[in-house]
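Supplementary notes for students who missed Thursday's class. We covered one full example, reproduced here. Read the sequence, then the structure, then the short commentary at the end.
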Amino acid sequence: RNLVSREIGTSRKAGQSTASREAEMREAGDMVRSIDTRLSDIEAGLEQRMLLVPNIPHPDVPESGDRVVRVLGQPRQFSFHPLGHVEIGERLGILDFPRATRMAGTGFPLFVGTGARLQRALVQFMLDLHTSGHGYTEMAPPFLCNEAALTGTGQLPRLAGDMYRTVDGLYLVPTAEVPVTNYYRDEIIARKLPVSFASYTPCFRREAGAAGGETRGLLRVHQFDKVELVKFVEPGESYGELEKLTEDAEDVLRRLNLHYRVVELCAGNLSFAASKCYDIEVWSAAGNGWLEVSSCSNYESFQARRAGIRYRRGDGRPEFVHTLNGSGVALARLVVALLENNQQADGSVTLPDALVPYMGCGELKAGN
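Structure (token representation):
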């Protein structure tokens, strides 16, 4: 087409007819526009398919069978039959599921009195610990995010059915990981790495398809509070930083005197975006089993590529960062563990020393 354009110019200067060549040019232009449209559709389709390709597990991740890395403490031995958290909460008057159901439907908790204060105390305790004790910078992000943000961290398009979408196209955050990771979206980070953030948000998840006994009470809810830890690190440092992040999340449970374990997930149980993940699980006295309260993951450059997050290496060249995140920790099941493992024969619940300054009391009992 470029060659013919030059020929037409030469012919016009020579006084020659260019009608036939101009007709060829129009046909060529139509063909180019048709090919461009087809190419655009193909590229868009390819991009959508690529967004459904998961991250690659780290070579050290077990192919099958989760591996228990460490266990802290022992299950408490009771001299009486321990109650479940629903019965404890209702007896103390701090949990009200029937009224919550009238307000919003099943799967939404309602904390009252010292129950509400316990939620607030746990959030404040964890934020103080991670910022003052572990060196994270606190961030208070929006509780809604757009589609691009969720695509960057890997929730969209795969998990669209598990999220709450508003009429104007925004989504309620499923975790603070989404807004905090997108803090540097489409940027080259100018700060020295690693950069570490701690953030509180409520989290909203539809949990599509969830049913059964494991959904009772606070075990699987549509709304819960969580303090999230997010790190942006150099690629060569990311697995050492994953160990540190996991240790920071564990510190919450140690200070609350809870029996817990750390489990390294096998490749088949990794999340869509993770290369390696540790689950931290607390013991449920009434359920006689483990409850996940944190997942600490290294995504390597998976999220950074989707969100366009880079840093400058020592030679000045831009490179994708590695992103990490972990719950530090999630409150719903943490409250389950605190109520069940610290219940007393008289119906009260003893609080760990770390929470006393935030609660103004050392126990939960009916009427307080």
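Commentary. The first strand starts at residue 67 and ends at 72. The chain has a mean pLDDT of 95. If anything here is unclear, bring it to office hours.
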